[in-house]
Write a structure and sequence with these properties.
Layout lengths: L1 H25 L4 E9 L8 E9 L2 E8 L11 E5 H6 E10 L11 E8 L2 E4 L11 E6 L13 E3 L1 E2 L6 E2 L1 E2 L7 E9 L2 E8 L29 E3 L18 E8 L10 E7 L10 E2 L1 E2 L5 E5 L1
Antiparallel strand pairs: 1-4, 1-20, 2-3, 2-5, 5-6, 6-7, 7-20, 8-9, 8-12, 8-18, 9-15, 10-11, 13-14, 13-16, 16-17, 17-19
Length: 297
């Protein structure tokens, strides 16, 4: 009797072990790749990376991170994921993330997105905004050192068509994770005029302005975005200067931002006339050559 029981227990054990092995072998994950074909992305430096996301049943699934070099080349273009996620994804999103990110969710700074149609998603900067109606005006002036002094050493994004300063920029409100920044290219060097989110308010920075206060034309919002280049000149430049012949730029910057150069998104640009005169209104031009591409599965 005891011998029969031992044999029975041994057979049961072998059956359980065999069943476990079969269960493990029967359900391996099937992997499937997605391939990115993207152009126009900027090098993010050492503090940030790009991260792709598939939207599956309304929830984000990370496809992995990559960097972009100074020539716009992606460090990685193909990513392996569980076939279930790849096949059921309805959308692809690309975000900008901190290099050592502990948050499992996408950051607010989303730069590209697009819906899958069959096995391909065409992606563009829709998460940032629609810039088809973007427009801008500016004047040269230096209100922070008084009238009629070095007037070609400052730029202000406003309109004087009515005889008084009014809003000069037509731009959409940006989502979280992005800010506008004005720039002037002076002797080949891009110099910031300050970051802003409100086109009818003084911007957040005035590192080069003079000591006089800006006119208060918008109540608590103050003046308009812009800057006088009068002091604290960056290396290689001297202030006051004459920015005629340079370039005026409005960029869209990721926030937070670790770069002192304009980001790849520059919806408005203009070559400042070589014979530009102060307090003359100049119109900026659209520059909508933004990053884009496809994601295939």
């Amino acid at each position: 009797m005891k011998k029969t029981q031992l044999i029975l227990f041994a057979l049961i054990g072998l059956f359980l072990i065999s069943s476990c092995k079969k269960d493990d072998d029967m359900d391996p994950k099937t992997m499937k790749s997605i391939t990115l074909n993207l152009s126009g992305l900027d090098d993010l430096g050492s503090d940030f990376v790009y991260e792709g996301w598939l939207i599956v049943d309304g929830s984000p699934v990370s496809t992995g991170t990559f960097t972009v070099d100074a020539n716009g080349m992606l460090s990685k273009t193909s990513f392996e994921l569980d076939e279930m996620y790849v096949d059921n994804a309805t959308k692809f999103v690309l975000s900008i993330e901190p290099m050592n990110d502990t948050d499992p969710n996408p950051a607010a700074t989303k730069i590209l997105a697009g819906d899958f149609s069959g096995n391909t998603a065409s992606v563009d900067v829709a998460p940032v905004g629609d810039f088809s109606n973007a427009a801008g005006k500016y004047i040269l002036a230096t209100p922070t050192n008084g009238a009629d002094s070095d007037e070609n050493s400052g730029i202000w994004f406003l309109d004087l068509a009515t005889g008084s300063p009014t809003v000069g920029l037509t731009l959409p409100t940006l989502p979280d994770g992005w800010m506008y920044e004005g720039w002037t290219v002076i002797n080949g060097t891009a110099v910031t005029t300050g970051k802003f989110t409100n086109v009818m308010a003084t911007d957040m920075d005035d590192p080069y302005s003079g000591s006089m206060a800006l006119p208060d034309v918008n109540g608590s919002d103050g003046f308009f975005p812009g800057e006088d280049f009068l002091m604290n000149a960056p290396s290689g430049l001297s202030f006051p200067t004459d920015i005629a012949g340079g370039k005026a730029v409005i960029s869209i910057e990721p926030y937070p931002d670790n770069s002192e150069a304009p980001f790849t998104l520059k919806p408005l640009v203009h070559d400042i006339p070589a014979m530009a005169t102060d307090h003359t209104v100049y119109d900026m031009m659209q520059n909508l050559n933004f990053p884009s591409g496809t994601v295939s599965r």
